[in-house]
């Protein structure tokens, strides 16, 4: 089986008659969610028939042309808590109606793990229910709500969402997580027969590959992603100013903090110690990763498994990342990358210097690429989901 390309769908003959058809259900999709959903649909469509039920899908999404789509609404979650709660309930009612009219055997709630009403209705309809969290949604919501509401109110609301999510886990026939460590951090037991702890996404290993040998790379470290608060960009700006002159820190991406970075780091940018590339098209990301000796990602505990980590390792670029959610299963300390013990800028800068002084970085680079080829290639992902669907095929309500 070959990897999907951007302009090529898998032919129906690659699908397997013994596997149940799948209806994937998601909450309103922002850009990051759209990317993860597209990845999941690519995998499932290679092995069975799949359709997507979602809301607010980006107008230019490739999903529109590549997969059967039912769009509940083009409205997002809403800016206020009240509007978001109303649309949350309304979308659940719409989901129930749509799912009742579908004939797929399996309904997979991807990210929409707190949508308890349609989860229960789907179970009552006699369908097999799977839920797959993309990260810690209740924590994400609490951090967002704390920007609008008193902390105690935000905590209560997030607690209610967590209770809905836990109830959804209990009602479902199975819970899929990206990695075993992600399951543990969600208070799930990877060894449980109803938990499938290896549902991580895949990397396009033909695109994300080693283009520049590690030994030929310059002393450039950096960050790739959205330049905003939750990605730790302010902390990284402080790190960039503390590195020796022979190490360049490169910010690859764009976001709300772009202008702030340009002003705060003006002197370092002028001196060539810091670089801001701006937005990089997706087809240029492999090249950007191949130009780095080390990728730094002080990930938030809200994230399941950042795609950038998988793509960096596929390019032979070691990653220095926070050990949150599924990250430790991929960024294995001193084997494929390195663990951030403190997000304090001085500690991070010292850690970067210490890592770049190692004499085994080429071997660690090779280990990362090998891990991706072995466990996170497209074929490996298809085999994982093939096993999951075969396992749940015998479930009944």
TrEMBL record:
<keyword id="KW-0808">Transferase</keyword>
<protein>
    <submittedName>
        <fullName>Glycosyltransferase family 1 protein</fullName>
    </submittedName>
</protein>
<dbReference type="InterPro" id="IPR001296">
    <property type="entry name" value="Glyco_trans_1"/>
</dbReference>
<dbReference type="GO" id="GO:0016757">
    <property type="term" value="F:glycosyltransferase activity"/>
</dbReference>
<dbReference type="Pfam" id="PF00534">
    <property type="entry name" value="Glycos_transf_1"/>
</dbReference>
<feature type="domain" description="Glycosyl transferase family 1">
    <location>
        <begin position="215"/>
        <end position="369"/>
    </location>
</feature>
